[in-house]
Write a structure and sequence with these properties.
By secondary structure, the chain is mainly beta. It has 3 helices and 18 strands. It folds into 2 domains: about 120 residues; about 120 residues. The strands form 3 sheets. Strands 3-2-6-8-9-1-5-4 form an 8-stranded mixed sheet, with no helix packed on it. It starts with a helix and ends with a strand.
């Protein structure tokens, strides 16, 4: 009996040792299943924060909701994606039955499809993958679906104009008969829903000059393409040359994510 117990203990020890060694290489996976290694990242290009919206939480991947879908087929052969219960994470890996899947990670879903907001925006990423005998390394990069637009009026504007503002329009806003207004004291950015390839944003600068400054135009229209996860800043300022009575507006288009600047000087009395 003592000999039998000694041998049993030895076998148990050997079994534990064998299991430990195999787990250092790959996790033990039941037949018909495979391993998924998931990496989530955020690719937001906006600045860290603004006065209106704290954008920092968008860069914290722990805030993102993950949804798992398995691929099936209809009787006609069309793809059908069915949401499944999220698999348990063990040491950074997930175990799923073999097949085709996708994962969607998003944040602030309440802004999904919202054409324009000054309160927040929608950020999402997804990736499709196949679970097989070979571990699947899946990377999901989450990015905003909205572009960001801001307007900055220079200090000289108040010297020559009683009022000034920018009216903002996009194809989606126009479809809803909406126009946004950036007033002279506005500071909060607009997050605009735009197509993946970008959309044209139309900015109409409207001016009400002081009585002593006579100008031939009170509207200046500028257009620019804005894409998701990109930022566009419109700088507007005025200058006056007493020697020749030349009152002009300088419009600077600054794409903060691309570091490009375009300056347009507009002598108003020439327009």
């Amino acid at each position: 009996m003592r000999k039998y117990l000694s041998m049993l203990c030895w076998m148990l020890g050997a079994g534990v040792l064998t299991t430990s060694c195999s787990s250092d290489d790959e996790p033990i996976v039941p037949d018909g299943m495979g391993v998924v290694r998931l990496t989530l990242e955020t690719g937001m290009n906006y600045e860290a924060s603004t006065k209106a919206v704290d954008e920092a939480p968008y860069k914290n991947i722990d805030n993102y909701n993950k949804k798992w879908y398995q691929k099936g087929y209809s009787e006609s052969g069309e793809d059908i994606w069915t949401e499944i219960t999220a698999p348990e994470e063990i040491d950074g890996t997930y175990t799923l039955f073999k097949g085709s899947y996708k994962i969607v990670a998003d944040y602030k879903e309440e802004y999904k499809g919202v054409t324009a907001s000054q309160e927040g925006f929608y950020s999402v990423g997804e990736s499709s993958f196949i679970v097989s005998d070979t571990p699947a390394n899946v990377e999901v990069v989450c990015e905003p679906t909205h572009g960001k637009m801001t307007v900055a009026f220079g200090d000289q504007m108040a010297s020559y104009f009683d009022d000034y503002k920018v009216e903002i329009s996009t194809p989606k806003l126009a479809g809803n008969s909406e126009t946004l207004t950036w007033g002279k004291v506005e500071t909060n950015p607009w997050y605009l829903l735009v197509d993946e390839d970008g959309e044209t944003v139309t900015a109409t600068i409207k001016l009400t000059p002081k009585a002593e400054y006579s100008i031939s135009t009170t509207e200046i229209v500028r257009t620019h393409t804005l894409a998701p996860n990109k930022a566009w800043k419109l700088n507007v300022n005025a200058s006056y040359e007493p020697s020749n009575g030349n009152l002009s507006i300088t419009v600077t288009i600054d794409e903060g994510t691309n570091d490009k600047t375009q300056t347009i000087e507009i002598p108003l009395e020439w327009l």
